[in-house]
Design a protein that fits this description.
With about 350 residues, the chain is of the alpha/beta class. It contains eight helices and 13 strands. It holds the Pfam family CN_hydrolase.
């Protein structure tokens, strides 16, 4: 049985650029603040730690080499000590945490999202299915299990996508088809439209238009979280770049966090573009019924006899070891999902006690 009414906290917060330790400390402070203000869930932006790599859009390959190295050094391992701190904070403050981070696996990075429950356990771990444009020079693709991006919780069915995944019609439909009720739209910094770039890259197009459309199409609550960019943040993201001022991703400001109801109406007041903190709003799941009674895109307002979505949500591995039990048969073990790789917080604590790392 879902809790029908509860409060959500959404971060419009500037990352601690290229500094994972400071980023984790700031995350914990915001988690504490959200709990103190009665929130049941807090949502963070795309690759919140160590911040979205705005520098990719402003410099050339040679200029960006030092920044790429710094970014990789401050990316997080999914079961590393930084993520465990976030899991402990969620447990200590009895709150759901939707956490965006640059995930490092060996020499590869992924745009990752994680839902941590109030017991500190990982409920969802996914990666952006296809990095956008120049993001592909830094990040890899997800595999099939990242399509399982909705979790049934006491707060309702919570789902999430990153940035321009909200421009992928099939990906959105796959998310709604899992019964999503509350959606976290995790955006990076997006500035105003300033030059010859398409209007579709500005914050009004993304944080406002696409996020509102997501609510209207899917009949869900949409929590919009993003990153403002201060003058100091601009400096850190343009170090060594000759033409950074020409980049629309280094224009500054950009804060546009908000929440939209399942009928598309905005439930929060506009924020200052440089506001650095949390906004709050109440969620009432019963409002979804009013919207879906008119149109349910994955129910009565669909024609599966004519149009259907084919989904392959199985994880894929780079290496598959073949077992030959009989000469005429070949079999192999399926690759584990990202979620299956996580231990519970109790299991982690028990292992640390054995090692004497905690009392």
């Amino acid at each position: 049985m879902s809790i029908r009414q509860w409060k959500a906290a959404v971060a419009q917060a500037e990352p601690c650029w290229f500094d994972k330790d400071a980023g984790i400390e700031k995350s914990i402070r915001l988690i504490e603040e959200a709990h103190a203000n009665g929130a049941s869930l807090i949502a963070f932006s795309e690759v919140w730690v160590p911040g979205y790599p705005n520098f990719l859009w402003g410099g050339n390959y040679h200029e960006n080499i030092p920044l790429v190295h710094k970014y990789m050094a401050n990316s997080l391992v999914a079961d590393g000590p930084e993520i465990i701190k976030i899991r402990r904070a969620a447990s200590q403050h009895d709150i759901y945490v939707v956490f965006g981070f640059s995930e490092r696996v060996g020499g590869s990075l992924y745009l990752a999202q994680m839902l941590v429950g109030p017991d500190g356990n990982v409920l969802c771990h996914r990666r952006k299915t296809k990095p956008t444009h120049v993001e592909r020079t830094l990040f890899g693709d997800a595999t099939g299990d990242s399509l399982n991006n909705v979790v049934d919780t006491p707060l309702g069915k919570i789902g999430m996508l990153n940035c321009w995944e909200h421009l992928q019609p099939l990906l959105k439909y796959n998310t709604w088809a899992q019964g999503e009720q509350v959606h976290i739209a995790a955006w990076p910094f997006n500035g105003d439209h300033v030059g010859i770039e398409p209007w579709s890259v500005c914050n009004e197009a993304n944080e406002v238009t696409m996020s509102r459309a997501y609510s209207i199409e899917g009949r869900v609550f949409t929590l919009v979280t993003n990153q403002p960019l201060s003058p100091e943040g601009m400096k850190k993201n343009s170090e060594g770049q000759a033409n950074a001022k020409e980049s629309f991703m280094l224009s500054g400001g950009g804060g546009r966090a908000s929440m939209f109801g399942p009928d598309g109406r905005q439930l929060t007041e506009p924020t200052d573009p440089l506001f650095d903190g949390l906004i709050y709003c109440g969620i009432d799941l019963d409002k979804i019924d009013y919207a879906k009674a008119i149109a349910d895109p994955v129910g009565h307002y669909s024609r599966p006899d004519l149009l259907r979505l084919l989904v392959d949500d199985q994880p894929k591995s780079y290496v598959v070891k073949v077992n030959r039990e009989r000469s005429d048969q070949v079999s192999w073990e399926p690759a584990p999902t990202l979620l299956e790789s996580h231990k519970t917080l109790k299991e982690i604590d028990a292992e640390m006690r054995k090692k004497g790392a905690i009392a």
